[in-house]
Write the C-alpha coordinates for this entry.
Amino acid sequence: MTPLPRMPSFRLDGKRALVTGASSGIGLASAAALAGAGAEVWLMARRQSELLNARDAIRAAGGNAEARVLDITDLAATAACVGEASYDILVNAAGLARHGPALDTVAADYDTVMCLNLRAAYFLTREVARGLIAAGKPGSLINVSSQMGLVGGPDRAVYAATKHALEGMTKSMAIEWGPHRIRVNTLCPTFIRTPLAEQTLSIPARRTWIESKIKLGRLGELEDIMGPVVFLASDASAMITGTHVLVDGGWTAE
Protein backbone atom coordinates (compact mmCIF):
# COMPACT_ATOMS: atom_id res chain seq x y z
CA MET A 1 0.00 0.00 0.00
CA THR A 2 1.32 3.45 -0.89
CA PRO A 3 2.21 5.40 2.26
CA LEU A 4 0.36 8.68 2.60
CA PRO A 5 1.96 11.93 3.70
CA ARG A 6 0.97 13.02 7.18
CA MET A 7 -0.94 16.25 7.72
CA PRO A 8 1.18 18.72 9.74
CA SER A 9 -0.35 19.73 13.03
CA PHE A 10 -2.07 23.04 13.65
CA ARG A 11 -1.62 22.47 17.39
CA LEU A 12 0.73 24.69 19.39
CA ASP A 13 1.07 22.65 22.58
CA GLY A 14 4.36 23.33 24.34
CA LYS A 15 4.90 26.61 22.48
CA ARG A 16 5.18 30.03 24.08
CA ALA A 17 3.69 32.96 22.16
CA LEU A 18 4.14 36.69 22.63
CA VAL A 19 1.27 38.87 21.41
CA THR A 20 1.47 42.66 21.48
CA GLY A 21 -1.52 44.95 21.22
CA ALA A 22 -3.26 42.09 22.99
CA SER A 23 -5.79 44.04 25.05
CA SER A 24 -8.30 44.39 22.20
CA GLY A 25 -9.04 43.93 18.51
CA ILE A 26 -6.77 41.83 16.32
CA GLY A 27 -4.23 41.34 19.10
CA LEU A 28 -6.82 39.89 21.48
CA ALA A 29 -8.30 37.68 18.76
CA SER A 30 -4.81 36.41 17.92
CA ALA A 31 -4.03 35.66 21.55
CA ALA A 32 -7.32 33.81 22.00
CA ALA A 33 -6.68 31.77 18.86
CA LEU A 34 -3.16 30.78 19.87
CA ALA A 35 -4.29 29.86 23.37
CA GLY A 36 -7.10 27.79 21.90
CA ALA A 37 -4.52 25.88 19.87
CA GLY A 38 -2.58 25.04 23.01
CA ALA A 39 0.08 27.74 23.25
CA GLU A 40 1.13 29.49 26.44
CA VAL A 41 0.32 33.07 25.51
CA TRP A 42 1.93 36.20 26.92
CA LEU A 43 -0.29 39.21 26.34
CA MET A 44 1.37 42.61 26.15
CA ALA A 45 -0.20 46.06 25.82
CA ARG A 46 -0.12 49.48 27.44
CA ARG A 47 -3.59 49.51 29.03
CA GLN A 48 -3.43 47.53 32.26
CA SER A 49 -7.14 47.17 33.01
CA GLU A 50 -8.06 46.00 29.50
CA LEU A 51 -5.01 43.73 29.39
CA LEU A 52 -5.89 41.96 32.63
CA ASN A 53 -9.47 41.55 31.48
CA ALA A 54 -8.21 39.94 28.26
CA ARG A 55 -5.95 37.58 30.21
CA ASP A 56 -8.76 36.58 32.53
CA ALA A 57 -11.14 35.97 29.61
CA ILE A 58 -8.64 33.62 27.96
CA ARG A 59 -8.09 31.78 31.22
CA ALA A 60 -11.84 31.46 31.75
CA ALA A 61 -12.05 29.83 28.30
CA GLY A 62 -9.46 27.26 29.37
CA GLY A 63 -6.38 28.91 27.88
CA ASN A 64 -2.95 29.47 29.41
CA ALA A 65 -2.32 33.23 29.48
CA GLU A 66 -0.09 35.72 31.27
CA ALA A 67 -0.11 39.51 31.01
CA ARG A 68 2.62 42.13 31.00
CA VAL A 69 2.02 45.87 30.73
CA LEU A 70 4.49 47.19 28.18
CA ASP A 71 4.86 50.08 25.77
CA ILE A 72 6.87 48.58 22.92
CA THR A 73 7.98 52.02 21.75
CA ASP A 74 10.24 51.96 24.83
CA LEU A 75 12.99 49.94 23.21
CA ALA A 76 15.05 49.39 26.36
CA ALA A 77 12.05 48.15 28.35
CA THR A 78 11.01 45.93 25.46
CA ALA A 79 14.45 44.37 25.15
CA ALA A 80 14.57 43.71 28.89
CA CYS A 81 11.10 42.19 28.93
CA VAL A 82 11.59 39.97 25.90
CA GLY A 83 14.97 38.87 27.22
CA GLU A 84 13.36 37.32 30.28
CA ALA A 85 12.04 34.34 28.28
CA SER A 86 12.33 32.60 24.93
CA TYR A 87 9.28 32.82 22.68
CA ASP A 88 8.50 30.37 19.89
CA ILE A 89 5.89 32.62 18.32
CA LEU A 90 5.49 36.37 17.95
CA VAL A 91 2.34 38.13 16.82
CA ASN A 92 3.03 41.85 16.73
CA ALA A 93 -0.44 43.37 16.51
CA ALA A 94 0.32 46.70 18.17
CA GLY A 95 -0.35 49.57 15.81
CA LEU A 96 -2.14 52.85 15.29
CA ALA A 97 -3.31 55.18 12.55
CA ARG A 98 -3.77 58.91 12.23
CA HIS A 99 -5.50 59.22 8.91
CA GLY A 100 -5.78 62.41 6.93
CA PRO A 101 -4.86 64.02 3.61
CA ALA A 102 -1.16 63.87 2.81
CA LEU A 103 -1.10 67.64 2.35
CA ASP A 104 -2.23 68.05 5.95
CA THR A 105 0.19 65.61 7.59
CA VAL A 106 2.04 67.12 10.55
CA ALA A 107 5.43 65.84 11.67
CA ALA A 108 4.19 64.86 15.12
CA ASP A 109 1.56 62.49 13.70
CA TYR A 110 4.05 61.08 11.17
CA ASP A 111 6.60 60.38 13.92
CA THR A 112 4.04 58.81 16.27
CA VAL A 113 2.72 56.37 13.67
CA MET A 114 6.19 55.49 12.37
CA CYS A 115 7.49 54.97 15.89
CA LEU A 116 4.95 52.30 16.77
CA ASN A 117 4.07 50.69 13.43
CA LEU A 118 7.64 50.38 12.13
CA ARG A 119 10.39 51.31 14.60
CA ALA A 120 8.93 49.39 17.54
CA ALA A 121 7.98 46.45 15.31
CA TYR A 122 11.51 46.27 13.94
CA PHE A 123 13.26 46.11 17.28
CA LEU A 124 10.67 43.85 18.90
CA THR A 125 11.00 41.32 16.09
CA ARG A 126 14.77 41.52 16.37
CA GLU A 127 14.70 40.86 20.12
CA VAL A 128 12.47 37.80 19.79
CA ALA A 129 14.68 36.45 17.00
CA ARG A 130 17.77 37.09 19.09
CA GLY A 131 16.34 34.94 21.87
CA LEU A 132 15.48 32.14 19.46
CA ILE A 133 18.93 32.15 17.91
CA ALA A 134 20.60 32.12 21.34
CA ALA A 135 18.45 29.14 22.34
CA GLY A 136 19.01 27.37 19.02
CA LYS A 137 15.26 27.10 18.47
CA PRO A 138 13.07 27.57 15.40
CA GLY A 139 10.24 30.05 15.51
CA SER A 140 7.45 31.85 13.69
CA LEU A 141 7.39 35.65 13.81
CA ILE A 142 4.24 37.33 12.51
CA ASN A 143 3.86 41.05 12.03
CA VAL A 144 0.32 42.32 11.53
CA SER A 145 0.52 44.47 8.43
CA SER A 146 -2.46 45.43 6.29
CA GLN A 147 -3.79 45.27 2.77
CA MET A 148 -2.43 48.83 2.76
CA GLY A 149 1.00 47.25 2.80
CA LEU A 150 0.36 46.28 -0.82
CA VAL A 151 -1.88 49.06 -2.11
CA GLY A 152 -2.65 52.65 -1.25
CA GLY A 153 -5.76 54.50 -0.18
CA PRO A 154 -7.08 57.99 0.45
CA ASP A 155 -5.91 59.69 3.66
CA ARG A 156 -3.49 56.83 4.30
CA ALA A 157 -0.10 57.99 3.07
CA VAL A 158 1.60 57.67 6.45
CA TYR A 159 -0.17 54.46 7.49
CA ALA A 160 0.48 52.81 4.12
CA ALA A 161 4.12 53.90 4.27
CA THR A 162 4.59 52.07 7.56
CA LYS A 163 2.93 48.91 6.29
CA HIS A 164 4.83 48.88 2.97
CA ALA A 165 8.03 49.26 4.99
CA LEU A 166 6.94 46.43 7.28
CA GLU A 167 6.63 44.16 4.25
CA GLY A 168 10.20 44.93 3.17
CA MET A 169 11.51 44.50 6.69
CA THR A 170 9.81 41.11 6.95
CA LYS A 171 11.27 39.83 3.68
CA SER A 172 14.80 40.86 4.66
CA MET A 173 14.59 39.36 8.13
CA ALA A 174 13.23 36.12 6.67
CA ILE A 175 16.27 35.89 4.41
CA GLU A 176 18.71 36.52 7.25
CA TRP A 177 17.11 34.19 9.78
CA GLY A 178 16.02 31.38 7.50
CA PRO A 179 19.23 29.42 8.21
CA HIS A 180 18.21 29.48 11.90
CA ARG A 181 14.81 27.98 10.98
CA ILE A 182 13.07 31.19 11.99
CA ARG A 183 10.16 32.10 9.74
CA VAL A 184 9.03 35.72 9.37
CA ASN A 185 5.75 36.64 7.69
CA THR A 186 3.07 39.29 7.74
CA LEU A 187 -0.68 39.02 8.08
CA CYS A 188 -2.51 41.57 5.93
CA PRO A 189 -6.13 42.16 6.92
CA THR A 190 -8.69 44.33 5.22
CA PHE A 191 -10.98 46.49 7.36
CA ILE A 192 -11.84 44.42 10.42
CA ARG A 193 -14.53 45.53 12.87
CA THR A 194 -12.31 46.97 15.61
CA PRO A 195 -12.16 50.28 17.50
CA LEU A 196 -9.23 51.31 15.28
CA ALA A 197 -11.25 50.77 12.11
CA GLU A 198 -14.34 52.48 13.48
CA GLN A 199 -12.91 55.95 12.84
CA THR A 200 -13.21 55.15 9.14
CA LEU A 201 -16.26 52.88 9.15
CA SER A 202 -18.32 55.55 10.92
CA ILE A 203 -18.12 57.76 7.80
CA PRO A 204 -20.96 56.58 5.50
CA ALA A 205 -19.30 57.51 2.21
CA ARG A 206 -16.04 55.87 3.22
CA ARG A 207 -17.79 52.70 4.41
CA THR A 208 -19.63 52.46 1.09
CA TRP A 209 -16.30 52.73 -0.75
CA ILE A 210 -14.76 50.05 1.48
CA GLU A 211 -17.60 47.61 0.96
CA SER A 212 -17.41 48.15 -2.79
CA LYS A 213 -13.73 47.14 -2.77
CA ILE A 214 -14.17 43.94 -0.75
CA LYS A 215 -15.20 41.28 -3.26
CA LEU A 216 -16.87 39.08 -0.67
CA GLY A 217 -19.25 41.94 0.04
CA ARG A 218 -18.74 42.27 3.78
CA LEU A 219 -16.40 43.73 6.35
CA GLY A 220 -13.92 41.51 8.11
CA GLU A 221 -14.66 40.11 11.56
CA LEU A 222 -12.15 39.24 14.26
CA GLU A 223 -12.90 35.55 13.72
CA ASP A 224 -11.55 35.90 10.17
CA ILE A 225 -8.09 36.57 11.64
CA MET A 226 -7.91 33.65 14.02
CA GLY A 227 -7.41 30.76 11.59
CA PRO A 228 -4.68 32.48 9.55
CA VAL A 229 -2.78 33.39 12.74
CA VAL A 230 -2.78 29.80 13.95
CA PHE A 231 -1.80 28.60 10.47
CA LEU A 232 1.23 30.92 10.32
CA ALA A 233 2.26 30.04 13.87
CA SER A 234 2.01 26.27 13.38
CA ASP A 235 3.90 23.56 11.53
CA ALA A 236 1.16 23.64 8.90
CA SER A 237 3.02 26.62 7.39
CA ALA A 238 6.53 25.22 7.93
CA MET A 239 7.69 26.11 4.40
CA ILE A 240 6.23 29.62 4.37
CA THR A 241 8.50 32.58 5.11
CA GLY A 242 9.25 36.04 3.78
CA THR A 243 5.76 36.63 2.48
CA HIS A 244 2.29 37.78 3.47
CA VAL A 245 -1.06 36.14 4.04
CA LEU A 246 -3.88 38.35 2.80
CA VAL A 247 -7.17 38.36 4.67
CA ASP A 248 -8.73 41.03 2.49
CA GLY A 249 -11.86 39.52 0.98
CA GLY A 250 -10.37 39.97 -2.49
CA TRP A 251 -9.59 43.70 -2.17
CA THR A 252 -6.16 43.35 -3.80
CA ALA A 253 -7.25 40.84 -6.44
CA GLU A 254 -7.83 43.51 -9.07
Notes: The chain is about 45% helix and 15% strand.
